[in-house]
Write a structure and sequence with these properties.
Two copies of one chain form a homodimer. The first copy, chain A, is α/β, with parallel strands linked by helices. The first copy, chain A, has three domains: 52 residues, 434 Repressor (Amino-terminal Domain); 129 residues, Rossmann fold, CATH 3.40.50; 137 residues, Response regulator (Rossmann fold, 3-Layer(aba) Sandwich), CATH 3.40.50.2300. Helices cover 42% and strands 15% of the residues of chain A. Chain A is built from eleven helices and twelve strands. A six-stranded parallel sheet of chain A has the order 2-1-3-4-5-11, sandwiched between helices. In chain A, strands 7-6-8-9-10-12 form a six-stranded mixed sheet, sandwiched between helices. In chain A, α5 links the parallel β1 and β2. In chain A, α5 runs parallel beside α11 and α9 crosses α10. The longest helix of chain A has 18 residues. Chain A is elongated. The termini of chain A are far apart. The interface between A and B is large, with 57 and 57 residues. Chain A binds a DNA duplex through α2 and α4.
Chain lengths: 341, 341
DNA sequence: TTGTACGCGTTATCAC
DNA sequence: GTGATAACGCGTACAA
């Protein structure tokens, strides 16, 4: 491996390594002429300062890590896209870690990242049912951390979230206004904060409209497509709901399949509204009424927040929470007079 | 910053840094007892070897970079998911770069990556219309590189692709068999290899079935949703095709919207088949007939290929091309007797 | 404005 | 089996 380094470049130009180094930083004084000379030669020889050496020297990595539960989900892809853009604009790179909703992977990732590999972490969490204390053991050495969407309530760190309670309330109210009397709430894990918050909106909307709340109408689903299929079919046949409020888009899709299967027609027999970032929700059969979160913007804001923390460098009068607005977009899956769009 | 390092850990245990270091590698000889002692203390003090120092020392980063044109696309999300899994299993991390189909960004990313930040690159290219020579200037120092899906034909490096020609041929034939006489081919950039290959399949299938090939039936679209909307509407009204073969899923979606708008009914008036990795294609209205690429598997194979190269360490009798099979899944958008599924 | 010299945290080599 | 030491490539005091 005869790759180029600062020393060789220095020799080639008959200069010292420090001068070369200076040519690549903005702060140091250096003769403009020598600087251009160096940069030219560097380009010619394809030299770039070694990232790891710089990092070691400067004790920072210009890298942020992004941890998400899954990737095959429009919401997270869009969020990452937002993060990537902001990161790049700031000269940062992003590392991606997928937990597959596995708490132990999350813990592993976080632990490993504390070896200097990243300057900060943006995470949507996976282990709400578990112990979050692993995040505290780093003490003051914990990397700057920003939560988005799925958060640990008991961990003190900035978070970017959406107004889930209000959206859920309005979503449920929308179903009620469309005539639903027996609305079921589909959730992946109702003990998770996000599932809980959304459920509370649902419960309160029922109460406001004097509809009884039945425990059994809370349908707790899993992460497995097959299991959900069974669970949802059972819910449909046994509970006989006339409305579904899905807390996650995946559950709406599973419901569509189940309804096709059971010959239940949406929206005549069952109306459904779902949290979803799917851009082609209008193309579904029937088009799906969604609560759409500003996914890209959430990513953007999360990244901006992280950079604020990194810039602040200890000063801690930062906003601890940013709440963005989701939008309810009404379509045929909750319509009373569905027509082809 | 009083973070822990190997020296402090050594002091805390009254050992030398070398011994500590040994405890963390698998190869070196070390007393089992001291090793467990060290690992325990390390855990207690939350010590991990600094990644950048190790990298500097070992001249490798245990990191691979993934460059994709876009992220808000099921295909690439799934591919990245596959890559991430394999990388993690090999103890590697992945950096993500999104070019937004901008050639200059791609060049920038590649250049920057050659500073030691990554050990290898997996890329789906963005700049086919441009000069690919920038990849050659690194000479023997070029990082190991694997292309997937979108490749530069003139760059010699392993690639993971799908049998696009055959799929396209079969897709077109399928439309013909369903009774289409006037099939239009929707492409984003017909000069790109992927657009070209798919087009050739289309052309040859027409020929086989004695259908005339008309230049104007090749509809060249853009990356802008608005522009495509206009282009496709024009194509529908002016060319009056009875079949669409979309080389990219985005164009199929745009067609759906256009047809809703123009009151053209799919599949009665227009049949459509598209390359797409959308998992909920069955839920569209009507359900979309797709050529589905094994996206996750492509990612997996690309990553495996890269690791093979990294392991081979120069030995170059590696397969230069892996071709995976796409599947055509027939649904209602190309059906002659559509019924609700 | 430029050069010298040291150290960032780690690991490989060579002693012991 | 363990310790001392040099080197990885770079950036910055400090000296010139």
């Amino acid at each position: 491996m005869d790759s180029i380094n600062i020393k060789k470049l220095a020799e080639a130009l008959n200069l010292s390594t420090s001068t070369i180094s200076r040519a690549f930083r903005d702060n140091s004084d250096i003769n403009a002429a020598t600087k251009t000379l160096i940069l030219e030669k560097a380009k010619e020889l394809n030299y770039q300062p070694n990232h790891y050496a710089s990092n070691l020297r400067e004790q920072k990595s210009k890298t942020i890590a992004v941890i998400v539960p899954e990737l095959a989900n429009n919401y997270f892809s869009q969020a990452i896209h937002g993060i990537e853009r902001v990161a790049r604009e700031n000269g940062y790179h992003i590392l991606i870690y997928v937990t597959d909703d596995d708490y132990s992977k999350e813990v592993n990732f976080i632990n490993h990242l504390h070896n200097g590999r990243a300057d900060g972490i943006i995470m949507s969490v996976s282990g709400e049912a578990n112990d979050h204390n692993y995040l505290n053991k780093f003490g003051a050495n914990r990397l700057p951390l920003v939560f988005f969407d799925r958060v640990y309530e008991d961990i003190e760190t900035p978070r970017i979230i959406t107004n889930d309670y209000k959206s859920s309330f309005l979503a449920t109210e929308h179903l009620i206004e469309q005539g639903c009397k027996r609305i079921s709430y589909l959730v992946v894990n109702k003990s998770l904060s996000i599932g809980k918050t959304r459920m509370q909106g649902y419960i309160d909307a029922l109460a406001k409209h004097n509809l009884p709340f039945e425990e059994q109408l809370i349908v707790d689903c899993s992460n497995s497509y097959e299991e959900n299929s069974v669970i949802i079919k059972n819910a449909l046949t046994q509970l006989k709901p006339d409305g579904f409020f899905a807390s996650v888009e995946r559950l709406a899709f599973a419901t569509y399949y189940a309804c096709y299967n059971l010959n239940i027609s949406i929206p005549e027999d069952l109306k459904i509204i779902s949290f979803s970032s799917l851009e082609i929700a209008p193309l579904l059969n029937p088009s799906l009424t969604t609560i759409t979160q500003p996914a890209t913007e959430i990513g953007t804001e999360a990244a901006k927040m992280l950079f604020k923390i990194l810039d602040a460098n200890g000063l801690k009068n930062l906003p601890s929470e940013v709440v963005l607005e989701s939008k309810i977009i009404m379509r045929n899956s909750t319509s009373n007079s569905p027509e082809k769009p």
